[in-house]
Write a structure and sequence with these properties.
The structure holds two protein chains of two kinds. By secondary structure, chain A is an alpha/beta fold. Chain A is 45% helix and 13% strand. Chain A is globular, with a radius of gyration of 23 Å. Chain B has 13 helices and no strands. In chain B, helix 4 (65-96) packs parallel to helix 7 (137-161) and helix 8 (165-173) packs antiparallel against helix 9. The chains are: A alpha/beta, B mainly alpha. Chain B: InterPro entries: BP-dep_ABC_trans_perm (IPR050901), MetI-like (IPR000515), MetI-like_sf (IPR035906).
Amino acid sequence: MKTLAALLLGATALVGTQAMAETTLTIATVNNNDMIVMQKLSKDFEQKNPDIKLNWVILEENVLRQKVTTDIATQGGQYDIMTIGMFETPLWGEKGWLSEFSEVPVEYNLDDVLQSVRDGLSFDGKLYALPFYAESQMTFYRKDLFEKAGIEMPDKPTWEQIGQFAEKITDKDNEVYGICLRGKPGWGENMGQIGPVVNSYGGRWFDMSWKPQLDTPAWKEGVTTYVELLKKYGPPGVASNGFNETLALFANGKCGMWVDATVAAGFLTDTKQSQVADKMGYAHPPIGKFEKGNHYLWSWALAVPASSKEPEAAKKFIYWATSQDYIKLVAEANGWAAVPPGTRTSTYETPEYISAAPFAKLTLETIETADPTDATQEQVPYRGISYVGIPEFQAFGTAVGQQMAAVIAGQTSVDEALEASQALVTRAMKQAGYLKD
Amino acid sequence: MEQSTGQKIATALVGWGLSLLMAFPILWMALAAFKTESQAIASPPIFFFAPTLENFAAVFERANYPHFFLNSVVVAGGSTLLALIIGLPAAYAMAFYPTKRTKDVLVWMLSTKMMPAVGVLVPIYLMFRSAGLIDTRSGLVFMYTLMNLPIVVWMLFTFFKDVPKEILEAALLDGARPVQQFWMLLLPLTAPGIASTGLLAVILAWNEAFWSINLSTSNATPLTAFIASFSSPEGLFWAKLSAASLLAIGPILAFGWMTQKQLVRGLTFGAVK
C-alpha cells in the first residue's frame, strides 16, 4: 500500500512538473569558458522562471556557425536563442532572420551597454542581439624578459619597435621566441590579426566601387611586417598556430610578446593555466603608420531567430544572461576576474573588478576606441575592422588567409601571395555580382 | 621460404614499430584525458604524471553521457540492421541474376558517395524539416542507412560473387526455392562476410560526425555531438576533450576488439582461392 501511495505521489509530482514547465527554450552556444559558466548559473534563471525549461546545445565555434547558419537560412526553427558574432548579427538582421530588440525593459539599463558594441550588433539603427561578452586586441609581453634585456614597453608601441624588442629577447637556443602571432589560415584566425595590421599601414580591402585593393603598397607593407616578424623571431611551425596554440605557447613561457584577443589576458593571469601569470605586462596593440583601425572589435552575442516560437521567453532569458545582475552572480560564484568582459560600463566602474583584473582598463579602452564603421584611412563601402561585413567574406577571407599562411611557411613570397589574393578576391566579387566584367 | 631468427626479429620490430606509430595518437589522447589542462599542453610533452579524474568529473557534470551513448547505439545499430535488410536481397539479385545494367547500377550506387556531404546539406535539411525528421533518431537512422547502403551492397556483392554458382545450381536441382537457397546455403556460407559488413557499417555510423551534428539538436544527439561540445576556439580544452573522446570511442573500440576475429576473417574472405 505504501509503495502504491509513493508511486501515486511520484506520478502526481511528474504531472505537476510537466504542467509547470510550459515553455522549453533551446539555446545554441559556443564552448567557451564564459558560456559554460552561464550554463551552470542558469539554474538561477530557471528558479526565477519555473515555467521556462532550458535546453542547451553547446558546440565548437565552427560547428556551431555551420549549424545555426543552416537552420536560420532554411527557417528550421530548431533554436530559440543563438550565440552569434558581430560578423553575422548585422547581416542576419538585414535579412530579417533575427527578432529585433525594440522594447528593452527599463531595468535592463541598455545605456550601460558599451555604445561601440551596441553599434556593432545593430543594422540600420535596429538592435538585433545583446552582447554576452566583447573583446578587442592588446599586446601581451613578458615583463621579466624585458627587464633582463634592459628594454621597456611603451604604452602604445609601433610595429617597428615590436621588431626591435623581439630581436633583443629572442633566445632560440632556450626556446624563447620574441613574438608569437597567429599563422593558421582562416578569416577569423590569421586574417583577423593581419587585417588590423594592414589597416594600420593605410590599407583597405576594397575601394568605394568594390575593387579589391590587395595589390597596393599598404597591403605589401602590412603583410611583410607581420610575416618578417614571424620568420625572424617566431616559433617553429607558426603557420599552423591559431589562438589556442599560441595561448599554449605563451602560457608555457615560450613567447616574449603576443598581439591578440583581450580575452587571452584572463587565461594568462590564471595560475592554474599559465606558468607566466606573475610576469604579465599589457600594452595597446601596435601601430604601423596610423592608429586608426589597428585593433578589432568582436562580441559573442545572444540573438533570437525570427523562426523561434517563443520569442518573448527567449528575450527574457537574454535579458537575464546579459544583465548587471548576472555579472554580479558570476562574481559571487567565481570571483570578479571571471566575469564576462567588455559589455557594460558598470563592470568597469566596480573597484573589485579593476583590482582583480589588472588588464581591465586597457580592455575597455581598446573596445571603446574600435570603430567598425571607420577603421581605414581611405573610404570603404563596407563595415568591419578585421573583416568585411558581407556574406562572401568568410570564403574569400579564408582563401586569402591560406595565401598568407603559405608566405609564413616560406612556400611563396609576399608579392606572389598578394597577387594571387587580388586575383581570387576579384573573381569572388565578380561571381557575387559586386563587380562588372 | 624459412625465415632466419634475425629476419623474424626484424619483421616483428618493424611490425610493432608501425603499429605503435599508428596507435600513438589514440594512446596520447588516452594519456591526455588523465592530465590537467596545463599538463596537456606542456612542452616538452609530459609522459609521467600523477593521473587525475577531474576531466571526467567535468565532462559528466556538463553533459548527460548516457543520453548520447544510447542515441549512438540506437542510431548505429538501427541503421546497420536496416542497411542489411535492404542490402542483402539487392546484392543477392545482382550477384546471381545479373542483368546488362547491373555493373552500371553498382557504379552509380558508389558514385553517390563521391560528392562531399556538405554539397547536399541544405536540400537534405529542408526535406528533413518538412518531414519533421530533424533531431529525431529515426531521421538519423534513415540518413545513415542511405549513407552506408552503397558500401554494404558492394561488400555483400563481392562476398556473394565468391560463392561458386554450382553450389546454388545443385541446390536448385534438389528443389530448393530461391528463399531456401538464400537462408540455408548462402547465409551460412557467407556469414563471416555479412558479419564484417555489418561491423563496418556499425563503425562507420558510430563515427559519422557531419550528418549527426547537423541534423540533431538535443534529443537525437549521438556521441559525435558530445565530443564536438568539448572543443573550444578560445581557451584550453585538450584534457577535457580527450576525456570526452575516450568516453565516446571506448565502447566502439571494445566492440571492435571483441569482434576483430570475425572482422579480419570477413575482410580476407575469399582473398585466396
